[in-house]
Amino acid sequence: MSPKRKKPEPYKGFEQGPIRPPSEAYSLLIRVTRNCPWNRCTFCPVYKRSKFSLRPVEHVKQDIDTVHKYVEILRQLADEFGRMDRAELSKVMEHTDPGESPAFHAALQWLGGGLKSVFIQDANSLIIKPSDMVEIMTHLKQRFPWVERITSYARSHTVARIKDEDLKAIREAGLNRIHIGLESGSDKVLKLIKKGVTKETHIKAGQKVKKAGMELSEYVMPGLGGKQLSKEHALETADALNQINADFIRLRTLAIPRRAAMYEDYQAGRFEKCTDLMTAKEILLFLENLNGITSMIKSDHILNLFQDVEGKLPDDKADMINIVKTFLNMDPERQRVYQIGRRIGVFSGIRDMEDPARLRRAEKTCDELQITEENVDAVTDELMNRFV
Ligand code: SF4
């Protein structure tokens, strides 16, 4: 008896996944795979109850074609400044096939964002066959030749196994930036959080991306080693990044939502979360140990205590260190005002404390919430969990 053939999956219309990096807020999202093929990182709640699957290349191309159709229609409606007549826009919406409505809205949003960049979803798109990725990139570039940047998330474990010539072919076809969740350079931390990758593999993958001529963003998670591994996490992460020299190092501080596997360990006291003060000391140690590289540090995540720790290495290193030191040298009461002000969105960085109106608002909130040395970290945790 011949083996049963799997029925081809029918096309169910344009799809988008749940997340993208903060820097891709204006990008068109094109979904190539669904969810995460690894799905075991203990801090990550994103795809927990969702099964991984590949989307047929033809379906992805159909998504691209549908968005292209609406981009063309909308471009004709827009004047030279991108403004559109509301009545005309409503007419197009009325005549849009309901099944194509998500693609229409994606096109509209992308037009508003300038049509410059595309982000390939979901969590590890490079897991598909390199020839399929080349085909998708080629199609994207044919439809949208003006696009400047095409980017994707990828796991180091996957990238490290791709042949150099395949990565290069993908780059030449259009994919020019990879976002990798490095999280930590410490093998102990990577094991603890079940990242499924070692420091060595992270370094190999990062170097391969650079060698292929792609831009590289590495995500680092301050606080991920908890109190116990904080120092090792800072030093080993800096050491890994010193060997990679990524274009961007992006900070995204640990938060532990209830849906994350780590939450149970945290509740049971098996994982001791760093206080903001400890995380600040960890970031300081991390920054002090970044040497010999030219990466751009970005702190573009709402969970970060210092959104102003940003700059290009090595020139801005001293300034970034000074920001963290300024916080660490404040008296405890002022530190608490900053922590709360930051978490309610009144401050984005230390310098915002010089604005009397903002300072008053943060102080008032501290009074209302009856913030003390004992409860400040519990309250900031609650506030942070609104964003994860
Ligand atoms: S690889 Fe990324 S998406 Fe997948 S579980 Fe880990 S952090 Fe989450």
Produce the secondary structure layout.
Layout: E1 28-31, E2 33-34, E3 53-54, H1 57-77, H2 86-94, H3 101-112, E4 117-121, H4 130-143, E5 149-154, H5 156-159, H6 164-173, E6 177-183, H7 187-192, H8 199-211, E7 215-220, H9 226-244, E8 248-251, H10 262-267, H11 276-288, E9 296-298, E10 311-312, H12 317-328, H13 332-343, H14 356-368, H15 376-385
Parallel strand pairs: 1-4, 4-5, 5-6, 6-7, 7-8, 8-9
Antiparallel strand pairs: 2-3, 9-10
Helix pairs in contact: 1-3, 1-4, 4-6, 8-9, 9-11, 11-12, 13-14, 13-15
This protein binds iron/sulfur cluster.
Q: What does it look like?
A:
Pfam families: Radical_SAM. Its cofactor is [4Fe-4S] cluster. Residues 22-294 form the Radical SAM core domain. The protein has 388 residues and is of the alpha/beta class. It folds into 3 domains: 10-146, no CATH class; 155-329, Transcription Regulator spoIIAA (2-Layer Sandwich); 331-388, no CATH class. The chain has 15 helices and 10 strands. Strand 4, helix 4 (130-143) and strand 5 (149-154) form a beta-alpha-beta unit. Helix 8 (199-211) runs parallel beside helix 9 (226-244). The radius of gyration is 23 Å and the shape is globular. The termini are far apart. The mean pLDDT is 94. The structure holds iron/sulfur cluster. Iron/sulfur cluster (SF4) binds at residues 36, 38-41, 44, 46-47, 123, 155, 181.
